[in-house]
Fold this sequence. Notes:
The complex is a heterodimer.
Chain A: H1 2-19, E1 24-29, H2 36-47, H3 51-64, E2 66-72, H4 74-86, E3 90-95
Helix pairs in contact in A: 2-3
Chain B: E1 3-7, H1 10-26, H2 42-64, H3 71-74, E2 76-80, H4 84-101, H5 108-113, H6 123-151
Antiparallel strand pairs in B: 1-2
Amino acid sequence: MAESRSHTRTDARAATEVQLQDGWRVVVLNDPVNLMSYVVMVFKKVLGFDETKARKHMLEVHEQGRSVVWIGHRETAEAHVFTLQQWHLTAVLEPDEAR
Amino acid sequence: MKRVEVKLSLPVVAPLVDLIRELTIDLERSLAAPQALHDLDQDFRGAWIGELLEGQNGDLRSLLSLFDGEFFTVGVIAFDEKNAEPIVRACTALRLKLRESRLKALGDESLETGDVEMEGLDETTKTAFMCYLFLATVQELIIQHLDSTILGL
């Protein structure tokens, strides 16, 4: 079990590094319905975040209305958006114009 | 396999189950949270929404299966690693639908804080709000007790 978490984190880190070559953002928007604990759980499950990082992004969504949770290749970004939407988070894909 | 059983009060929960069944019918053909998909071409968008809808309906079936004939005899629902994930998602779908269709009058701030005067509500809104809170409680139970199981950690 612990091993599987380690793989997920490694994959997430690798994906974050790969994304620097491309530029699509996965942005999660605030909604008044989803519980904070639920959003944290989804971030951990879908994006491989640890508890601290998941809570940081959840609070960003809650307080600022949005959080960029991933940046990278379009195909992977789309896959993340789809999975986040399966969990009923409002997730959108944006070009990373900062690049 | 970790399993959590919850004993519910049938007189309290039965009307909420009726409402859940109604909402499930409403959700058969539409997503609980319509998503902005501007960047996708039309064909891909159709497939995307279709797949989300299929998943949503599967999740709702899992939730409804908690309230089968046996539930109305013993009043017990049970969560384990097989049903926890679809049920926790189904609860969100239903809460989103309740907000959009039955609880608009309460306003988002009240829904977010849960600060609602029940006495001032008509019966329909009261039932809808109780259902909204019930579904959140189910989610919290699952997240609190089965988080590590459903995350596969």
